[in-house]
Known about the structure:
heterodimer; A: mainly alpha; MetI-like fold; B: alpha/beta; D-Maltodextrin-Binding Protein, domain 2; 2 domains
Amino acid sequence: MKYTFNWSVLWTGQSGHWLLQGVLTTLEISALAWILALGLGILFGALRTVPFRIPRAVGTFYVEFFRNVPLLVWMFFWYFGVPPLLPRAMQDWLFNHGAEFWAGMFALGVYHGARFSEVIRSGIQAIPRTQMEASVAMGLTVPQAYRLVILPIALRLIVPPLTNETLNLLKNSSVALTISVAELTFQTRQIETYTAKAIEALTAGTLIYLVLCVSIASVMGWVERRVAIPGLIVRTG
Amino acid sequence: MRRMLTALLVGAFAGAFFVAPVAAENTLEKIARTGILTIGTRTGSPPFAYVNKNNEWVGFSIDLVEQGVIPEVSKKVGKPVKLEKKESTPPTRIPLLSSNAVDLIAGTMTDTPERRQSVDFSVTFFRTGAQLLVKKGSPIHGIQDIAGKRVAAQQGSTNAKIIREKVPTAQLREFPDQPSAFQALMQGQVDAYTNDGIQLAGLKAKAPNPGDLEVVGDFFSDEPYGMAMRKGETDFKAAVDTGLKGLIRSGKYFELYDKWFGPKGEVPYPMTATVRKFIEDQGKQ
């Protein structure tokens, strides 16, 4: 079997435009989902560590429910399962205004929010208990202690695992193609459809993901160095 | 850090090129060695290839391979050949073929000039055209009515491409498989679903309430179905073609057509006189 490579399919015709659109959609959906995930992660990660039973149970329920169902199922849930619960007029409006994008964003954000929660919980639990006790002794309430002392320290500790989860989130955004979100993987398949050059299209997609991920990793590396707490994290290299 | 990055990049490039297969043996030699013909086919495209109520993987395309292609290939390699089926979808079928994972795509693949640059096609074994599936009472009666409307298509299919070219204002939503696109139509995420007429007739026949759905519009494309194989496999292609032509000439093809598309078939879809003439001509080539 001989396969004739024809790399020019990647920049002739509409391919370049499609790839660019794909990259933009991937970045857009990932960025919004990341913000959502970080918000949910901080909220539920903190709830899982508070000294009150009911908020802790709520946090645990959120994490276990959302992280233990496959992301693909969540995509279908937000796209096929949620709209029928809304009034008919709202459904039509949504379907005409990118319902698939928002469903994909929620699926990604809520799923990764559960994973972010665990990362943030581990950061909080890495802080010596005396910090909390000292804060309360200073006259802070528990919410104030979290907001002013515990969370700022925890967030500075968890940058490395957060980077890991961020990269996962970006790559997982490709699952949204199952509900017709035209992101990067979708567009590489599109090129394959039009040109029947699968290896070229897949290679382009692979390299673009790699470049995106390596860029994010190096930005996060910079953040990590900037926010490291002297004395708490021993840096090598 | 820099050394790690370099290693990563080198690894990725090497990975990309390992995908390109460099097998020395041709398809017939491979079949002679293994005694197996592997086809890529569908699981949800009645009646061409689908899993039926008894959980059997059957269909018109599969029958054509079993009764036409397999005997001819067995004769060529001089020993009985077993059939193995693998799932293939529009986005995966060409990669599956190129990577030697399957030897023949026998499902619902349209023979197009672009695809001919990457794969070879057998003689045409079925002919249909794109139409639209809508809910009964829909204002859409054909491609002329879809401007501004939400239309689902299967990604990797020729139909999506045609809609994009002919009606760029339609809001195209492309799904990787038929069940999600159909679900989107049933729930109202989209107003219509475009695919080859015969596929839509198949979906309608299988739907819980076939009366609620309609296949509308004239064919807005010509979709000749062929079986695809790796390029330049002259001997294998000859065997596949001879097998299919034999079925047409002996009349067996029309019996099989009747079994699947006749009034009692899985998807009733009467053959027009033009199509019958066309298929008979394929047999004579």
